[in-house]
Design goal:
The complex is a heterodimer of chains A (169) and B (483). With 169 residues, chain A is mainly alpha-helical. Chain A folds into 2 domains: 140 residues, Four Helix Bundle (Hemerythrin (Met), subunit A) (Up-down Bundle), CATH 1.20.120; 28 residues. Chain A is built from 8 helices and no strands. Chain B has 483 residues and is mainly alpha-helical. Classes of the chains: A mainly alpha (169), B mainly alpha (483).
């Protein structure tokens, strides 16, 4: 079961990341990136890192992608495209960076010993990332910050309303 | 965590509950809008009274908790924290009085103003009472976000928009420094709790990453107190924001940033008086004092002039940090109290005189005010004397205690630079007084009616400025007892 799920998530991740690079339309590329983030979150879940999986969805697929799309909207993607096509320097810089990153990853994979013995505190490490452990921390040690964040969000909402609402009464 | 912990956190609960209450009134009772300013005022005044009342004595039947702190050690109770609670709440209550009629005058009266004002006070209280780096950060964000929105409160005014955007961009950048520093501190000390960090300081000092962390933390807050070289935002933001908002963030906002520096200061103090941070504070102090005083001379706008003067005042208070001794800290807190009420008075008078079109913002407009508005002119003159540090007003004793602390720790040269800069600053403060009494106004007409609540705010700050000037002993004894 685990192997099947891994294969599904991994293939989605690989295909979507290839699509991110090859799509001409930046909005479609950004949407493919969301797919990539989602499949990564699935892989984290397979590794029983629940918290990281949730954060991956909320922060990357949620907040950061909205920011990406917002910037794309402001930057007018059609102009961006012609800009990249006319400047070969960018192409070469991109190729150099990606080749370097690829070699770095290959190096890291070769170095890793895949039959490493399971660490003594492996179970403990997993426990930290579970929803249960995070929830317990959130409602005991970090109760006050948790409540205070609510007020921060409230004042940000009120402030955004004040500055941007068309008609205030 | 027990139920009784909630009683200790009463000041936070009152203000937090007040925010929600006003939000509900604003939503559901269309006729309830008129009571919102009064409600805000009494919430703040009540919290101020409660905090002052519980500085030394605990509510009946409750055990002292100063040893372990509240909410799993996140929040401290009593002592210095409550003194700051009092300052924030009382100062903001005066700012509400200033705002009440000022907002009517500029014809933008939304109840969001009071919600954001209370939120900013809640943030300040979270900073001053925190015992954990996370709480400092959350409190700072709460305060700053409210201030960003308040700075842009006059939505149709281009200067106000500029102030909000500038403050937001530069403020976020400073927060980046701060959070980066906190990450370094957490990485080296393995804990967010201030108490754990302090107990390890003597070991951690040898770790350069910890020192970088403290440095970045202090840079973040040096921005918030508007000291040179992180002062660039202050003149534009103070000028562009509505005067009642400037009154709030120039006074209690700065006090909140100082309270955060004083929280982490225990770590710096353990490094001794000759540490790198002591020298850093000396440089910041000298630059701020001289730059603020000299640049203020060239200003034509009175709010801009007060912004530069507040940079200079941040410099004076930084001397107390450079001195690294308990009397320096006591001096800073005394100075903060004095500074808060002096500037509230000054901005209160500007808000009273200012018209919707921006009359009485230029210093030239104050010509001949002595005959047209004798009481306001006399009040402004007293506050200008106090700001320049002339006895017997509160400003003098603020400077006195700070310079005394510097001399005690052997930094006599810092005190001398401070005196020099005070002498320079007398020029631009007294220029306003000279304009008011020894120049004739071009137009004798056009003084609008003076609002009652605004006048009350001016009188309250004036009384406190004079009282702390005539009897500084009781306040400084109270502060020294808490450190």
């Amino acid at each position: 079961m685990e192997v099947i799920l891994f294969a599904v998530f991994a293939s989605i991740a690989v295909v979507s990341s290839v699509l991110v690079v090859t799509r001409r339309n930046p909005v479609i590329a950004a949407l493919c990136l969301i797919l990539n983030f989602g499949s990564l979150a699935g892989m984290y879940l397979l590794l029983s890192a629940q918290f990281i999986a949730v954060v991956q969805i909320i922060v990357y697929a949620g907040a950061i992608m909205v920011l990406f799309l917002f910037v794309l909207m402001l930057l007018r993607p059609d102009m961006e495209r012609s800009f990249f096509r006319h400047d070969p320097l960018f192409k070469w810089a991109a190729i150099i960076v990606s080749v370097f990153t690829f070699l770095l990853l290959v190096y890291a994979i070769i170095l890793t010993t895949f039959n490493a013995p399971i660490l003594a505190n492996h179970a403990k490490t997993i426990e930290i990332g579970t929803v249960e452990a995070i929830g317990k921390e959130l409602f005991s040690n970090f109760l006050l910050p948790f409540e205070a964040i609510g007020f921060v969000l409230l004042s940000a909402t009120v402030g955004a309303m004040l500055l941007s609402k068309k008609k205030l009464d | 965590m027990e139920m009784k912990d909630l009683f200790y956190a009463m000041p936070l609960l009152i203000v937090g509950g007040g925010i929600l209450l006003i939000l509900l009134i604003d939503m559901f009772f269309k006729g309830g809008k008129k009571i919102i300013p009064a409600l805000t005022f009494f919430i703040l005044l009540g919290t101020a009274y409660y905090s002052l009342f519980t500085i030394n004595q605990l509510p009946i039947g409750l055990m002292p908790v100063s040893e372990f702190g509240l909410f799993y050690g996140m929040l401290s109770f009593g002592g210095k924290a409550h003194l700051f609670y009092f300052l924030f709440n009382f100062g903001s209550a005066i700012a509400v009085l200033i705002a009440n009629d000022y907002l009517k005058k500029i014809e933008t009266e939304y109840s969001e103003y009071y919600i954001l004002l209370l939120s900013s006070v809640l943030g300040m209280m979270l900073i001053a009472g925190s015992r954990n780096l996370v709480m400092i950060f959350i409190g700072l964000e709460q305060m700053s976000i409210s201030f960003y929105a308040l700075a842009g409160y006059r939505r149709k005014n281009i200067l106000s928009n500029e102030a909000a955007l500038k403050y937001f961009l530069l403020g976020s950048f400073a927060t980046g420094f701060l959070i980066y520093g906190m990450a370094f501190i957490f990485g080296t000390a393995q804990s967010m709790m201030l108490i754990d960090i302090f107990s390890q300081t003597s070991v951690l000092v040898k770790n350069p990453l910890f020192m970088i962390g403290i440095l970045l933390f202090l840079i973040g807050f040096t921005f918030k107190i508007a000291a040179v070289p992180f002062h660039m935002w202050a003149p534009d933001v103070y000028e562009g924001s509505p005067t009642s908002v400037t009154a709030l963030m120039a006074t209690v906002g700065k006090a909140a940033a100082f309270s955060a520096i004083l929280l982490i200061f225990v770590s710096v103090a353990k490094m001794g008086p000759n540490s790198v941070f002591s020298s850093m504070f000396s440089v910041v102090a000298v630059l701020s004092m001289l730059y603020g005083s000299i640049a203020a001379i060239a200003q034509k706008d009175i709010k801009r002039m007060l912004a530069y003067s507040s940079i200079a005042h941040a410099g004076y208070m930084t001397i107390g940090l450079a001195a690294v001794n308990p009397s320096g800290i006591a001096g800073i807190i005394f100075y903060l109290v004095a500074y808060t009420f002096m500037n509230l008075g000054a901005f209160g008078i500007i808000a009273l005189l200012e018209s919707k079109e921006g009359k009485f913002l230029s210093i030239e407009d104050y010509k001949g005010l002595g005959t047209r508005q004798p009481f306001l002119a006399a009040s402004l003159a007293i506050i200008m004397f106090a700001l320049s540090g002339i006895p017997p007003f509160a400003g003098f004793f603020g400077k006195y205690y700070i310079f005394l602390a510097a001399i005690q720790s052997g930094d006599t040269w810092l005190a001398l630079v401070g005196v020099l800069s005070s002498v320079i600053s007398v020029y631009f403060y007294l220029r306003v007084v000279v304009y008011m009494y020894f120049s004739k106004s071009d137009d004798e007409s056009a003084i609008l009616e003076i609002s009652q609540t605004g006048l009350l705010a001016v009188i309250a700050s004036l009384v406190l400025v004079i009282a702390f000037g005539l009897a500084p002993g009781s306040l400084i004894r109270l502060i020294s007892g808490l450190i």
